[in-house]
Amino acid sequence: MGGSEGWRGSGWVKAREKVLKRDKFRSTVSGFNAEQGQGLQVDHIHPFRLGGSNRMSNLRVTDRFSNPKTDFMAGAGEKKPQRDRRW
What we know:
By secondary structure, the protein is α+β, with helices and mostly antiparallel strands. It is built from 2 helices and 2 strands; from the N terminus they run H-E-E-H. It has a two-stranded antiparallel sheet. The longest helix is centred in the first third of the chain and has 11 residues, at 12-22. The radius of gyration is 14 Å and the shape is globular.
């Protein structure tokens, strides 16, 4: 499970571990756990790139299939990008 301090800000690695433990290593979106091989990820509810924080209340565990589906949630302040039809 990846995660670096880099662009996610200081304290990311510790916050990530705390969230995984809090959510019992289970996706809060799909209910999958690590043993089911879904690749758990820690997700920012309000995206970090849009000013979301690394506070526990803004983080949750998702899996690699559910995380992309939650990226453009209502209230995130961002529209889903349009497909580039030139290619």
